[in-house]
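Quick question, first post here. What does this chain look like in 3D?
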Amino acid sequence: MKIYNRFTKELIIEVKGIKKDLGGADLGGAYLGGAYLGGANLYRANLGGADLRRANLYRADLRRANLYRADLRGANLEGAYLEGAYLYRADLERTDLSNTCVKTFTLGRHYGFIHENTVKIGCRSFLMEDVNRVMLRKLGKENDYSKEEIKLYSNVIMAIINN
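> Answer (accepted):
Ran it through. Tokens below.
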């Protein structure tokens, strides 16, 4: 499999067969749409700006991976490990996050985490049942986020909570 930068069309990496250990790999801007990466080690991998639309990342290890501006629309992240993943501006529309281990996340200036029925964003903690878009908009305004950032963060947090 050849992995190209989706912007420059430059070859990033060529993998013979199915390589599942891509921990720490620099795959920034890579075209991985529809790729099978189930169970892959992508720990601390740079996937910033990568096109992962419809990719199968079932049970992939994405802990501390950089997913800044990654396009994950329609991707299968069921059972994936996202602890500490940088999800700022990642597109998670129609992404399957069921049974996904999301313990921590980074959204702009704030870190957050979900543990059992508690969501912590920055220095504030909320019961999961109390988290909704209205509350997230208010929290965003209190922290001087732009309307675009508030919408983005609300979508990410609601996607994580609802899956």
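The mean pLDDT is 82.
The longest helix spans residues 147-162.
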